[in-house]
């Protein structure tokens, strides 16, 4: 398997123009139609053919069309006695093809023995112009075309990890060190093939399971990985495989865990409540799901992150199976300021936005104090996701009807965005007359 970045369209046709498998051959985790893809991918022919058997090369050579001359093509004139002997050119085509293949076999054996790759242009021409792989963004198998896009860039490229991906993530003191040490230790042991076995039952307890719980928007998902910037995954040069809670969750669960283990992924189960909720005697289906998940956790040998903002609903069976539980509280001002600083630096680095750093940061602190005040109808304080959204909206306001030059981002743009946000927060607060934290505590979800 090979972890790569891909930007292009997937293929749905064979080289001869026929459909790449019949419609009835495809499962839900297969790309059926040609779509634009911009995602991390895992190129893996073996598991792609296991998942989509219709893609396997046909043993009778059905993927390629050979022309065989018919009798009427060979000759429509009888040979005269005085005519010199004429051989059938179709026979010569077949003979020369067999000789060429026989001459190439020695080279193919050498490639296989030395684990080397073809280098000459004539050798590269015999390779297919497509590969089969798993697309992490859609979580589906697809046929990916090789070559170059309209921008001159290769469609399938080696991944270029970001330097120091942890620097942009603002976490409570100590969380980064704990996560980094456990994850790096796990991958080091797995790569070396040496590890300590603490469980009495062989093959159990070899994974590392994190539970990240707390209020929304404070970095739980981003610790394992977010859409563009996975921290744990990228820092350890591993792909991130997120699991979602779909309709056929039970049938996909073991399949996803198996792929993650084979590819050495960091596995992310975001909003894990559906898998981990308390069992009860009246819901047999949920009890079965929890039991399946408990069994899968026992034998999973990779790194798994579970995130939730409703830790109070967890079944007690999971408490002893979690290696490290980390609480993410509401943001303090020092973390909020760092998030604002990070976004302001990104805007300045873009070269298209001019910002008044000091004035905007003064506004951010004033706004934070108002939202953090006890009983504030405009609270709670903005989380990381809300701050990002505020920047997007403020830049859009600053650029509206902009005429040339750099966009000027000022305090007033954030004030307008904040006014709308605070009106909504006050409206929601008026319905129940209690904050999100108070509601979560009342229902037993969490205690902030």
Question: How would you characterize the overall build of this protein?
Answer:
- By secondary structure, the chain is α/β, with parallel strands linked by helices.
- It contains 15 helices and twelve strands.
- It has three domains: 2-58 and 88-158, no CATH class; 165-328, Rossmann fold; 333-442, no CATH class.
- It has helices spanning 45-51, 71-74, 89-114, 121-124, 175-192, 220-224, 231-235, 249-262, 273-276, 284-299, 333-350, 357-372, 384-399, 411-432, 436-442, and strands spanning 2-11, 36-43, 130-135, 140-145, 156-158, 208-214, 240-243, 266-269, 303-308, 324-328, 353-355, 407-409.
- Helix 12 (357-372) packs parallel to helix 14 (411-432).
- Residues 1-23 are annotated as: Disordered.
The ordered string of helix (H) and strand (E) elements is: EEHHHHEEEHEHHEHEHHEEHEHHEHH
Helix content: 40-55%
Please tell me what the overall shape is: globular
| End-to-end CA span | 43 Å
Radius of gyration, whole Å? 29 Å
Largest sheet: 5 strands, antiparallel
Q: Helices and strands: which structural class?
A: alpha/beta
Structurally, the number of domains stands at 3
Keywords: Hydrolase
Region (Disordered): 1-23
Domain AAA+ ATPase: 206-332
Pfam family, one: AAA_lid_13
